[in-house]
Every structure is written in C-alpha cells, then in structure tokens.
Specification:
Helix content: 25-40%
Radius of gyration: 15 Å
Number of strands: 7
Shape: globular
Distance between the termini: 28 Å
Strand content: 35-45%
Strand order of the largest sheet: 1-7-6-5-4-3-2
C-alpha cells in the first residue's frame, strides 16, 4: 500500500535563484512563513530547523541540496516526533520562461498521523505567501486564520 503524499504546484514570477534564496534564507522565511525561521547551512547531510520565537516546531536533515534546482529535507514535527514517522519535503524548481514552476511534494507521511492534516492546510498558505512576497514584496497577512487546528 502506498503512503499518502501532498503535492502542490505553483508558478511564481521570479528567478530560480531568488526562489532558492527565499526558501533558504532565515530572514526571508520569517517574513512569508508567518514568523517561522528556517535555519541551516543547507548542505546535504546538515541539520535544519524551523522555529518561531525560539521554539522549534520542525527539525530534520537536509537530504539533497542542488541550488537552485532541488531542495529535499526530512521533516520531523517536534510535538509529534515520538508518535509519527519522519516525512520528507521536496522542492523542485523549474524555470518556465519568465516564471518559475515550484512543485512541493511532502511524502513518506504517516497515514494515521496529524502531519498530513496540518500540512494540507499549512503548505497552501505558506506557498501563497511566498508567491505574494516574491512578486509584490508583501507576504500574506500574519493574522490570516489557519485551517489547521
């Protein structure tokens, strides 16, 4: 039986290099990811974490780092770490003329876990905010209600 996965495709008017920087620069991530900072040196084999106000929410290891084409990391939700398996997030970045196609695949999910439910509401908001930030300089409002409980 195959494991559930979440796939999201969007098109952003930017360059692959600028998109890569937005995904990997802590100051950028904090602006469009509703206050969360993604921190690492983003080399394959290195640890990373995502935190807000100093509290880690996600951590793991960078699995693939191919700037500016592909970034893959293991995803462990800190509060579920003892109850759910580690999942994986893949960012595929492909130039398409004057835009970039970003495909985010979150797979290897625990079919009975909470992560799938949380990311199904979370990733669309984060990626819409990323798109807005790169195209207009403004992320989505920080007080945007979340679907995830």
């Amino acid at each position: 039986m195959s494991k559930p996965e979440f796939v999201y495709v969007t098109y952003i008017e930017t360059t692959p290099e600028k998109l890569w920087d937005a995904l990997t620069n802590s100051d950028f991530t904090e602006r469009y990811w509703f206050g969360y900072r993604a921190t690492s040196d983003w080399k394959a084999g290195s640890p990373y974490h995502i935190a807000k106000d100093g509290q880690r929410s996600v951590e793991g290891m960078v699995l693939v780092s191919d700037r500016p084409n592909k970034l893959v990391y293991a995803w462990d939700v800190v509060k579920y770490a003892d109850r759910e398996r580690t999942s994986r997030v893949t960012f595929d970045i492909e130039p398409r003329g004057t835009v970039v196609q970003l495909t985010v695949t979150h797979d290897e999910l625990d079919e009975r876990g909470r992560t799938l439910r949380d990311i199904s509401g979370g990733w669309p908001m984060v990626l819409a905010s990323l798109k807005s930030f790169l195209e207009t300089g403004k992320p989505l409002p920080a007080d945007l209600p979340s679907r995830a409980a």
